[in-house]
Amino acid sequence: MPGNSASLGHLRGFSGGGCRHSLLTIVWTVVGFLLVTHLISLYTRKDNNIDDQQHQPPSHHLQLLNPSALHELVRVEEEILRLPPPRKRSPRTGKRRSRKPIPLAEEFLDDKSPIRHLFFPDIRTASFGPTKDMGDDAFHYSPGKIWLDTEGNPIQAHGGGILHDDKSNIYYWYGEYKDGPTYHAHKKGPARVDIIGVGCYSSKDLWTWKNEGIVLGAEDTNKTHDLHKSNVLERPKVIYNDKTGKYVMWMHIDDANYTKASVGVAISDNPTGPFQYLYSKRPHGFDSRDMTVFKDDDGVAYLFYSSEVNSVLHIGPLTEDYLDVTPVMKTVMVGQHREAPALFKHESTYYMITSWCTGWAPNEALAHAAESIMGPWEKLGNPCVGGNKVFRLTTFFAQSTYVFPLPGVPGAFIFMADRWNPADLRDSRYVWLPLVVGGPADQPLESSFGFPMWSRVSIYWHSKWHLP
């Protein structure tokens, strides 16, 4: 561990042999105690996992014992992007030192960058989907390229999430339908598209997506309505209530200046809608911006939302019908300024991916873990693997929106993210990548001394990949 190496390096600076020997003895005694404690906890957890696996079907055992399905997913792929040469200089500046290349992150935000095609490839040369003649590349994901639906149109489901409908065994992808012009409501306002609605797509293989239409539409005439086109609807998520038989949608509702800071709720009898909009509110009396909902194994659902001007995250259970929050609420990640929460669960441990608050600009993701969904939540560090350093520090130029289990591969998930294009939001891209839970955590706990029992979270970059 880095801490132990630093301690030993410091000890080498002492000149007294007896003092050095005593300190080394103390250090290694502490290290030995921590190592034995950690091993005991791991074996205890292993025994619990074996007991759990005895209740799993035989196919589950085979998948756990055979790692070949994960081999291709965890292959580390590097990405080299060539920066353009410095801009031409006038003769007057010929004797001055040449300009340094523009940083890659700044090239991404510049809609006139000569390498913009690397971040947002043209639809004529870089799109994928069931209507394309892709040959051996069929059923491959190409993060950052244009994803086409079964009609050959770019998918419009930004900031979205996935619902697997157990009754029909169909996946539904809900997201912001942004197929409109991008503009600024005022000079200092953020880039925006008028509300069109929530788009819905269906699939049985997670690659071939059929457009089911707009399942929750905008309000064109009533300017006081939450869904009036001049307002903001972001990050819609749908969960199914087993008791009521209803599909419940939660979303971020705001005005053009982002001062309303509320959640909205809609309901439907069918996954393809239409959804009936019910109301908006500030949950627990606090402002709410980026948000998500998570349904646990016991059927209890939770709302996670950035609050207190995005300085903290709030967590609270929903009512039994999923139509409101209960009075119970916990504040976590105080002062960390995290948003875009994406929740998932593996072997009774809860995990979350978040981003920093930088508007439409990409930034470094963090993974978090907790033994209780209400916290405390611990940081696990940057989960991104591969690409290059800039890719890893910008979450592959994307922002988290959802994580869901990869079918048939325990411990593996699909990480969903958006590569936002503030110059033309309808042309924002999807970055779907394999996420794997496994390996030792790479940094100690914040709330106590030592390393956690849970595993590291890794999101692997691939310019092209497919389901195993």
TrEMBL record:
Top-level lineage group: Eukaryota
GO cellular component terms, A-Z: Golgi apparatus
Gene3D superfamilies (alphabetical): Glycosyl hydrolase domain, family 43
InterPro entries: Glyco_hydro_43 (IPR006710), Glyco_hydro_beta-prop_sf (IPR023296)
SUPFAM superfamilies: Arabinanase/levansucrase/invertase (SSF75005)
Transmembrane segments: 21-43
A GO biological process held by the record: classical arabinogalactan protein metabolic process
Keyword terms: Glycosidase, Hydrolase, Membrane, Transmembrane, Transmembrane helix
Ranges in coiled-coil conformation: none
A Pfam cross-reference name: Glyco_hydro_43
Molecular-function annotations in GO: beta-galactosidase activity
Family per similarity comment: Belongs to the glycosyl hydrolase 43 family.
Entries under PANTHER family matching the protein: ARABINANASE_LEVANSUCRASE_INVERTASE, GLYCOSYL HYDROLASE 43 FAMILY MEMBER
Protein name per UniProt: Uncharacterized protein
Biological source species: Brassica oleracea var. oleracea
